[in-house]
# Entry
Amino acid sequence: MKLYMAPMEGLTGYIYRQAFGRYFGGADKVFTPFIAAEGSRSMKNKEIKDIAPENNKGLYTVPQIISNNADNFVRFARLIENRGYEEININLGCPSGTVVSKGKGSGMLGDTDKLDSFLDKVYGALPDMKVSVKTRIGLKDPEECMKILKVYNRYPIHELIVHPRIREDVYKGSPRMEYFSYIYENSLNPVCYNGDIKNVADYEEITEKYHKLQAVMIGRGLIRNPAILKSISSHESGPEYVVDKQTLRMFHDDIYNAYKSYLEQEKIILFKMKEIWCFMIDLFADNEKYFKMLKKSDNLRNYNIFVNKIFYEADLNP
Ligand SMILES: Cc1cc2nc3c(=O)[nH]c(=O)nc-3n(C[C@H](O)[C@H](O)[C@H](O)COP(=O)(O)O)c2cc1C
# Structure
């Protein structure tokens, strides 16, 4: 079973991915947050940096593109290919209001004719690249997944990564497993499961039920516990790796120091670190008082106090 790190805008940029690789690893592939292929523009500096080979050493990185325009998509795919990549991913899952209102991300799932003609052009123009799809199961109704799968089955999708929620679910409720089962049984392309895997037991439940799966992708569960993929693979071959505070602290400091040297504004560094902690704090026992401290930290001095305190005082959850 292959294990993937999900793309997460604002969280899994190259600084995070590199630190993850250095301290934990275990990902067969890591996906970049989406790059928007729009109009006549080229890639932004931030996007170029994120996929630069020197910032992706030691990891198999798959750049992800979001667009509803096949020409723009193909143009960006070639720009990415020129930087040494042979595999890219299409974002057909983003539920964000601003993205969906422009008919992109999961907004493309509501009109299967348009989706079909987009994929027809993309796959027609990129026969030499591995093009995978990351998708939700529908826009408004999970029953849409049957029509959507019919479209996907017409193309040589390198991997079909399925998050079994509709756009309107955003992240609420549970993944709609009966619809995932339908896709798993009827997809002509290799399927990867993505959604709500938080620990080794969740992973085992999925892989025992769906033993033909090509891969499993983990997003929030990995930001919560960056050692999750290492724990899963060690569990399969021997004693399970369990993250310790010292390694977690080094991982944290690596990311924090990189942000401090690369971002100028204190406010932005704080914002980015807080985003990680919104998930990672769950690793610590009795974390409420520390979470309050984190939320109140409005400068790096207070943030440092929070970090020292939580790592010194709090235990990791078993
Ligand atoms: C903050 C945030 C940012 C995300 N950014 C992206 C993105 O750039 N591209 C994408 O395909 N999915 C994105 N996702 C969705 C995740 O990749 C993943 O599909 C989703 O979180 C469900 O998997 P999980 O339950 O393992 O987290 C994002 C999710 C979150 C919460």
Q: What stands out?
A: The chain has a mean pLDDT of 97. The chain has two domains: 2-237, 245-313.
